[in-house]
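Researcher: Can you fold this with adenosine-5'-triphosphate in place?
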Amino acid sequence: MSSTPVIFAASGLRAGYGGPPVLDDLSLSLRRGEAVGLLGLSGVGKSTLVEILGGHARPTLGQVTLNGVKVTSKAPHHRKAVKARLRTVHQNGLTGIDPHRTVEKTLTDAFTQARRAGRSTNSDVEGALLGVGLPIRFATRTIQTLSGGERQRLAIARALATRPDVLLLDEPLTAVDPTMREEIARDLRAHAAEHEIAMLVASHDLALLDQLTDSVHVLSEGRLVESGALRDILRAPSHPDTRAIVEALPEAVAANRVLRA
Ligand SMILES: Nc1ncnc2c1ncn2[C@@H]1O[C@H](COP(=O)(O)OP(=O)(O)OP(=O)(O)O)[C@@H](O)[C@H]1O
């Protein structure tokens, strides 16, 4: 992986909401096809970081680049490319989408967006749905009729439909039941590996992080304070926040029954 090129980089990020900064001089990078988790106590700034990395919010300082292009660039050709190549699955699923839009239209719009940005896509609505465990009969349903878990799955399908280089996921499967979650995570991981999609997954769900990612960062006090393989970090946490996360684990996880061998 270390010989694979870095395609996504954030450097010197500072951000907040008027009070003390939530992110402070934070830097990170992703190599092509790399899957990284983001762990941290509640309120530490994971969603804030994901929103900034995805270009949905601006940092006070620092910058984020995808293939060397600023994700907040206003140049039309950059915007088009970034929109297709960098996708975010937000914590609340399909925010900002017209609730009367059908599932099929949601996906075909994403395919169109991909083509406009010069990405090759097979425009396969059924395949996109099946990839997240939704049957084809869902194509004619409107967004407002979907359950929370179905919306989350559609949000992932929509993000993948543009053939992104980088996928940012913020608690992507919280509303999906654990059995389905495992299956979707497995398919997502396989899809990302096949298409060399780099992923950053922010989640409190350690089993999900274990399944989806190669390594994790721990965010605390505005910075990444610990990084490495999830199992190593849980076995020997060095930062007080990581120790707090480990101490709060249910016994089954601590006994390594949730993180499977
Ligand atoms: N719009 C906002 N205005 C003011 N403060 C905010 C706003 N959004 C987030 N915050 C604060 O910024 C901090 C970081 O929030 P953020 O949602 O990024 O944390 P998080 O790590 O994703 O939390 P969780 O794990 O609970 O989802 C928190 O203290 C939160 O209260």
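Model: Folded with adenosine-5'-triphosphate in place. DSSP finds ten helices and ten strands in the chain.
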